[in-house]
Amino acid sequence: MTGTLREFLQGKGVKFEPQRSQGFKALDVTLPMPPRWTPVPDPNVPDAFLVIADRVGGNSVYTSNAQVVVYKLVGDFDPAEAIAHGFVDSQKLLAWRTTNSSMADFNGFPSSIIEGTYRENDMTLNTSRRHVLASSGADKYLVSLSVTTAASQAIADAPATDAIVNGFRVTPPGATGQAPGHRGAATAPAPQAPTPAIAPAPKLPPRRSRPLPRLPPRRSRRSPGSRSGDAFGSGGSPSPAGVGTSPKPRITVAARGDNHAAAAGHPHTRPVALSPAPRTDRRWADRVGRIHRRTRIVSPC
Questions:
Q1: N or C: which end of the chain has fewer CB within 10 A?
Q2: What ranges does the record list as Low complexity composition bias (predicted)?
């Protein structure tokens, strides 16, 4: 093939009528819009139908962009014969090198796609170009997409450019399976990488709390030499550890009426030895006090 697609159609007497995206209803043209990419309101592209570009990111002088051009073709021609010239316009670019190409139909329409690199203004550019010969009723249209970026930005821009190339659609109006978006408008978001599903954590059975065992009431321990706060109000402080204390004197009491017998050492008298009460509560102190009042203390000497 020596002639371009345009040259072939013009040789058949076919006229090219440029179309605008506003109010275009003959076909549904969908162009994905990657993050950071925005429409170019006044593109420097002849007969532009829609142009988007990444004017924010990138380190190259060349701005990555995607261009769509739509022509209504007035005249008779063979679409299969015409699309065979779809590669020629790209192959005529300066220092062109092809990396991929295909003549497979595109959504049921004759189509060609070619990808590669070429030189322009001392820069190496990477591009993907597709031509689609679409029909809408009795009318025929040529829809062309070109996605171009600097070769130095090809890897960094690959997610965006691949999303545009793979998400581009040309379908009859209202066709099923159409990508979301308005006709002739680049409103469909670029496909995002699927997020791996995260399985929810298994629910554990509710943990039954065991009641804590009840401890017996804690009894205060007293050192052998301590009688602080006892029933007799001695008020003594506990003896330090390791310090010995002398035993308390035994107190002998006798029943009432037997005081003289007890004093004389009567054999029927039974001396009773009382130790100071270890209890410290008031009721016990009162009780011991009553016993003390009813008895007479007799010295053992």
A1: C
A2: 225-247, 254-266
Q: What is the CA radius of gyration of the chain?
A: 54
In the chain, what are the domain boundaries?
A: 5-171, 251-298
**Residues 82, 133 contacting (CB under 8 angstroms):** yes
Collapse the DSSP code of 17 into the 3-class scheme (helix H, G, I; strand E, B; otherwise coil) and give the result. Answer: strand
Structure tokens at 131: 């031509």
17-31, 154-168, 205-219, 233-247: segment of lowest average pLDDT: 233-247
Q: What's the rounded Cα separation, in Å, for the pair 25 and 242?
A: 108
What are 163-195's pLDDT values in tens digits? Answer: 999 999 999 998 745 444 334 544 444 444 444
Question: How large is the greatest C-alpha to C-alpha distance in the chain, in angstroms?
Answer: 160
214-231 confidence digits (pLDDT tens): 766 666 555 444 444 444
Q: Residue type at 264?
A: A
d(CA 135, CA 154): 33
For Cα atoms 155, 156, 160, give the angle at the middle one, nearest 5 degrees: 100
Give the C-alpha separation, 294 to 185, whole Å.
116
Note the pLDDT tens digit of each residue in 89-124. 999 999 999 999 999 999 999 999 999 999 999 999
Element (H, E) at 185: none
Asked if residues 90 and 12 have their Cβ atoms less than 8 Å apart, the reply is no
Q: What sections of the chain are H helices per DSSP? A: 5-11, 79-83, 88-91, 158-167, 259-264, 282-294
